[in-house]
Amino acid sequence: MSLAYIALGSNLHSPVRQLEQALTAIAALPETELVSRSAFYLSKPLGPQDQPDYINAVAAIQTSLPPLALLDALQEIERAQGRVRLRRWGERTLDLDILLYEQQIIRSERLTLPHYDMHNREFVIVPLYEIAPDLVLPEGQKLVNLYSSFADHQMQVITPSL
């Protein structure tokens, strides 16, 4: 089993529910176990500002799926939850990104690991730090050093209604 970290985001059609359903679907993937998940964070959109704010989280999983098979499975979850790609960094029902897969570095047309821009995204680094504060990235950078840039973030923690 390999340890992977997945970023989750949604800003359409009940975003909290979208993330909860995605976490359930990820946990149900073959040869995969949901190890931990962060709180849900409310954040401003990365791209165009004429869209709703996002709900973001990060999950840690143990999986036997190889990276590209995991990517395929995550994209199928996105499709099942109604993801339509209308514009770059635009609104979406669900966005699932593999952030890290063990210590692998992959540069391919379909997949870049570690995620190409995770270092610059507070809505990734803050929830990742919440569940893996001692993490060291494949290039040797400590997550705690990235987190220090975002320690004063203004994101709001969202408590799902039960």
Can you walk through the features of this model?
It comes from Mesocricetibacter intestinalis. The chain has 4 helices and 8 strands. The chain is an alpha+beta fold. The protein has a single domain, classed as 7,8-Dihydro-6-hydroxymethylpterin-pyrophosphokinase HPPK (Alpha-Beta Plaits, 2-Layer Sandwich), CATH 3.30.70.560. Strand 6 and strand 7 form a beta hairpin.
Short description:
The chain is an alpha+beta fold and 162 residues long. Helix content is 27%, strand content 27%.
The top level CATH class name: Alpha Beta
Poorly predicted tracts of residues: none
The proportion of strand residues reads 25-35%
- For the report, how would you describe the main beta sheet? 6 strands, antiparallel
Computed over alpha carbons, the radius of gyration is: 15 Å
The CATH architecture comes to 2-Layer Sandwich
From the N-terminal CA to the C-terminal CA, the straight-line distance is: 32 Å
- Helix-strand string: EHEEEHEEEHHE
Shape, per Cα inertia axes: globular
Q: Structural class given helices, strands, pairing?
A: alpha+beta
State the assembly state of the protein chains.
single chain
CATH superfamily heading: 7,8-Dihydro-6-hydroxymethylpterin-pyrophosphokinase HPPK
